[in-house]
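# step 3/5: fold
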Amino acid sequence: MMSPKSEAPTQRYQQKREVVLSQAALLFNEQGLKSATLASIAEGVGLATNSLTYYYRKKEDLAQACLLRSAAAYDQVVVAALGHAQPADRLRAYLQGHVALLAAIARGDHPPLMYFSDTRALPGPQAKQVFDAYADLFRHVRDVLRASHLPLVRDALNARAHVLLSVVNWMGPWLLEAYEVDEYLRVADGIADLLIHGLGATGRASQAVPLITGWEPQPHADATSEAFLRTATWLLNEHGYRGASVDNIAAHLNRSKGAFYHHHDHKQDLIAACFERTFDFMRQALSLAQQAPGPGLDRAYSAALAITQVQVSPQGPLLYSSAFSALPSRAHRLQASRALRKLSSRITALLVEGLRDGSVRPLDGAMAAQVLTAGITGGAVLRHWTAKPEAAVELFVRPMFDGLLCPPVD
């Protein structure tokens, strides 16, 4: 049996490690895994860098520990929600529990948790355990939506669970920026209502407007540069900043590194260009929807459909929201966030028009636009489930507009 003297150092070690994890989570969220350093984390907890390595030898080991702590905390919330019998009650309880955790973090009553956006930036040895934990979380989120009266095939259930998890992951930074802590529960109830009941007025199903049907995005870059951007986007989504190396990009295109540098001075320039390409394609679809005739709901639906179909087309994918952490600086991340907010405002405008013409039921247009933005940007993963753009409608877009518990189309 350990003596009180021998227990004390272990207890102090555990306490200090928790402090290190909390500081690291804050910096990783703010700066991204690439930009945050062990030195800056050590400084934040009053340690020398070499003292910090007593707890975690590498930055990637520390990030892994932060992400595993996040997965465990978020999974606990989902598991608690699974105690409810009905999927609508489970979904509502899940969102309420999640924002209660976010509120506790914002008040300082719970340690900060690292966002999952940098998971793909981890090297293989550290990434595997995190991906395994995240897969467990995903399976529990999928169980939130599972119901005997809702006969969904596996791909459909996976896609709806991904929409839900995309919205939940989006809520962390969004709530912190847009709402007071005492509003979090109200927002959770509002989002639950949107995800359960959809956006349309009673008895009204969303449908595409003819002007947008068949739309294809027009790249502004030349063919070679467009190929580099498309490949870099795919690598960023699949493997994070580390995987989107110049060597990997050139190898996938069977081109030389010299060809890359002929079009882009630095890798950071390429990443910024990938974001602008994604935003430009979204901007084209939303602009077309704003100009089109028809009810506001149908035009918003058509824009979401057009963007999502690009994800599984030869021109796709577009950047997944987690790629924000790959941007080279805080200034670049803020610029990208502002651009995405402006695009979300366009979705809000379409929904407000739908409120006026009666196609959209009474709801908070800005909140609904954020839910749609989270779902649309999460559509990059659709390529894992289908290579057919038409399948994107049933798998992904219709549940975003008609509710995650809407019955499948026969």
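# step 4/5: annotate
The domain at 4-197 is CATH 1.10.357.10 (Tetracycline Repressor; domain 2).
# step 5/5: archive (pending)
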